[in-house]
Amino acid sequence: MKSPYVDGSVVDGVVGLLTVESGGARNAMTVSCFSELAHHPTALWVSVANDSHTHALLSAGGTFSLSLLAADQGGVARACGAVSGRERDKCAGLALYAPRPAFWFLRGALTGTACRVYEQIPVGDHTIFLGEILFGEFDSRRKFRRHLLIADLQAS
């Protein structure tokens, strides 16, 4: 996969899958710029390009899910990071499930976290979305597996 976000990455980081739904449309996007923000109240942040399909859906819908990808899910990261959701339905080929309406988690991921956006911070050509964590799940069968890293994608 040729991607400026992977090939031009300066920091090796964990890779996740951001899923959003709004107005009957949904999209999945590979992300590596995210982190836990606070423990009390529980919150996290994710950075999304302003011109992306995900940004438009997230701004309109106000909720998102973040699945932390396992090392063997590089194919998912490549598939969802190489093309825009405006061009192809990336969710159609994924093993997604909705633990609650409007929240989509990826089967086999290490974790799934559902968030409600409470603030948006513009930073250059991206927006930082701050999300209150509403609920989450983790796959206890994966506890001895490690997360997918950007370096894993560069090596393949």
Explain what this protein looks like in three dimensions.
- The chain is of the alpha+beta class.
- It has one domain (12-155): Roll (Pnp Oxidase, Chain A).
- It contains four helices and nine strands, in the order αββββαβαββββα.
- The strands form two sheets. The chain has a seven-stranded antiparallel beta sheet. A two-stranded antiparallel sheet has the order 6-7.
- A hairpin with a 2-residue loop joins strand 3 and strand 4.
- The longest helix is centred in the middle third of the chain and has 9 residues, at 53-61.
- It is globular and about 35 Å long.
- The termini are close together.
Write the layout of secondary structure elements.
Elements: H1 4-7, E1 16-22, E2 25-31, E3 34-39, E4 42-49, H2 53-61, E5 63-68, H3 74-81, E6 96-100, E7 103-106, E8 111-123, E9 126-138, H4 150-155
Q: Indicate the overall shape.
A: globular
Query: At the fourth CATH level, what is the homologous superfamily?
Result: Electron Transport, Fmn-binding Protein, Chain A
CATH level 3 topology: Pnp Oxidase, Chain A
Rg over alpha carbons? 14 Å
- Top-tier CATH class: Mainly Beta
Order of helices and strands: HEEEEHEHEEEEH
The N- to C-terminal Cα distance equals 8 Å
Whole-number total of structural domains:
1
Secondary structure: helix percent: 10-25%
Question: What is the CATH architecture descriptor?
Answer: Roll
Major beta sheet, specifics? 7 strands, antiparallel
Derived from helix and strand composition plus strand pairing, the structural class reads alpha+beta
Low-confidence stretches: none
User: Helix tally?
Assistant: 4
Total DSSP E strands: 9
> In which order are the strands of the major sheet placed?
2-1-5-8-9-4-3
Percent of residues in beta strands? 35-45%
